[in-house]
User: What shape does this take?
Amino acid sequence: MIVEQLSLVDFRNYAAADVSLQAGPNVFVGRNGQGKTNLAEAIAYFATLGSHRVSTDAPMVRRGADAAIVRARLAYGTRSIVLEVQVNKQGANKARVNGSSLRPAELPRYAQVVLFAPEDLQIVRGDPSARRRFIDQLLIQRTPRLAGVLSDYDRVLRQRNALLKSARARGIRGDQLSTLEVWDDKLIALGAEVIDARSALTGELATPLTHAYAAIAGADHEPELDWARSIDGADPEEGTGEMDAAAGGLTSERFRAALATRRTAELDRGLTLVGPHRDDLVLRLRGLPVKGYASHGESWSMALGLRLASAELLRAQSMLGDPIVILDDVFAELDADRRERLAGLVADYEQVIVTAAVEPDIPTALRAHVVRVEAGTIVDPELSTNITEQGSTDG
Assistant: This one.
């Protein structure tokens, strides 16, 4: 799979852009603030339905505009399609495939992207939400239907929390709040599916992660993945990871039992304390948690290993061909050895898109086609057509 053409309207600092890309490496070089990362972000949006830099869509719409348009022509061998998404500051987004409307949640069926960025270090060192986000975005690419499940779970969670807050304000106790059981049923049905899907995906990532980590680090530090689940007694959001090691039975049954156990605490706090929104992906090297124990180099190797493992998983199981690999300002963060190792691992993907502030940061293996971004303009007769960036200095 490759992106042949990318068009933007009112996206980030682009009033309008129309960029042609090719198979193999595509490199955008320029000073910070020229919009290189915005191009990467736009391409990845089709696959992940989100940004790797912000948690909401509004910042992706250019200042003064109400909506942004991102359009891409993708090629799968000799076949091509045109994807389009309208990202709205307010209200639901809209999407099209070859001109026909569809739900935005369906877009990942047509595009698969693995994006490496400096923000990936937060997967390893950040709070649990960064790790949940990493897994959920990969889930959506593997099984696009789960985008709707995750969205429905978040909606039910917000409504249940609103009910708990209202009950707390009115001094209502658990046995007086019969309507909570209705929301419990919905939360359990959706949440159990999310928990089981995450667990299955984590198991599939284990072997490719081991191989990818060793390839990047040049050593096998025994990387491991596991989940600390709130339905089994952990509360990663509050720093406690102890689980009931003997927990068994159906996920939905354990979820319901956990909600019953925490009912009083939830009413006291006006907050749902059990569910996949409270879980954490635990990363270990040599049996120790990466967060707090791993060196900077080991942390980077783990973050890169997770992305490479994702790419290999998508590559092995996709009917669309290779995922598009994007390396966004990654090489400046790595030492020379890891740069060369990473370049060697991704060079044979169908399409690799690289952004960098300076060309020497880019390994030779990925310099097949270099385009320079200067003074807010990308100028290359083979790769673009009079692209002018306007507005802020995003990217």
About this structure: DSSP finds ten helices and 16 strands in the chain. Residues 269 and 356 are 46 Å apart (CA to CA). The two ends are 25 Å apart (CA to CA).
